[in-house]
Amino acid sequence: MPAREFVESGPVGTELFDTASARRSAHVLPDFVKGVLDGVPMTRTSKFLDAYKPDPFAPAGATGGHVCPFHGEGLFSDEELLQLLEAALSRGLHAKLHATADATVRQALEAVAVMRERYGDGPVFHVAHPEFVHPDDVARFAELSVVADASPVLWLPNPMNSVIAQQVQDHYMERIWPLRDLHDAGTLVAAGSDWPVAMEVPNPWLSIETMVTRRSPDPVFPGSLAADQALDLDTAIRAHTVNAARAMGLAERTGRLSPGMSADFIVLDRNVFDVPVEHVHNTEVRQTWFAGRLVHTAAAD
Ligand SMILES: [Zn+2]
């Protein structure tokens, strides 16, 4: 539930939060609020600790955010963020915070630390799209039990990252999407689609493969992106299954095949552990089962 108007118009903030229980059903779980703390690095709307490079796309004579030093601007003051989290947690809700660059990631972590003092270990916090995390802040994710919501599929060479490399200091690109650092520090890394914002088709196989390869399957975009932040295949699959369930508070209901859990599973055309990892993005789903019911069957070949 958005804290402020974002993609669509409609009720937001406490007006919306107060309707959560009325909107709840078996499979609609309005448990989280979302605060968008900054924008995206391509357009210099993410907030960084180290200034952007001068804007290579700035029109002649441009000023303000197009020149250097410019760090980007956050969308919430520290006080506004605490007010949002208080509004959420006092209603029994949890919080997902969009923070794409290191300054807003730090702001989010500071706010979570305050809320842990007030509310203890119960509330769940996510930082969504943590593309850039200061090395000093990596360990704080686990210390504060903050989920790293790895969404969407942007940890590979692509046009977006080419533009980002022109806008942010080079050292940032060397550690972009620090999923390995976060995982090794004990952070719950949970994959999400960010659908429909960033992807037309929320295909998890591309996401799983590229968490491991940090390469694009498309030869038009060669090379790798911060390859030492790669995860192994087992960890990438966990990020898309059990970790995502845990992140949503559904660990006792789904995310694993185990007696008593919801029978949510898929039948694949291959064992992804038996094929070269570069083939994982071509994986096809033959059947989809949800809560023990067959809900999708692929067309016959
Ligand atoms: Zn977001």
List keywords for this structure.
11 helices; 5-stranded parallel sheet; TIM Barrel; 3-stranded antiparallel sheet; 301 residues; binds zinc ion; alpha/beta
How would you describe this structure to a colleague?
This protein has 301 residues and is of the alpha/beta class. The chain folds into 2 domains: 13-256, TIM Barrel, CATH 3.20.20.140; 263-301, no CATH class. It contains 11 helices and 8 strands. The strands form 2 sheets. Strands 1-2-3-4-5 form a 5-stranded parallel β-sheet. The protein has a 3-stranded antiparallel β-sheet with strand order 6-7-8, with no helix packed on it. Helix 3 (78-89) packs across helix 4 (102-119) and helix 9 (204-213) packs antiparallel against helix 10. The N and C termini lie far apart (41 Å). The structure holds zinc ion. The site of zinc ion (ZN) has 4 residues, from loops.
Summarize the structure.
The protein has 11 helices and 8 strands. The chain is α/β, with parallel strands linked by helices and 301 residues long.
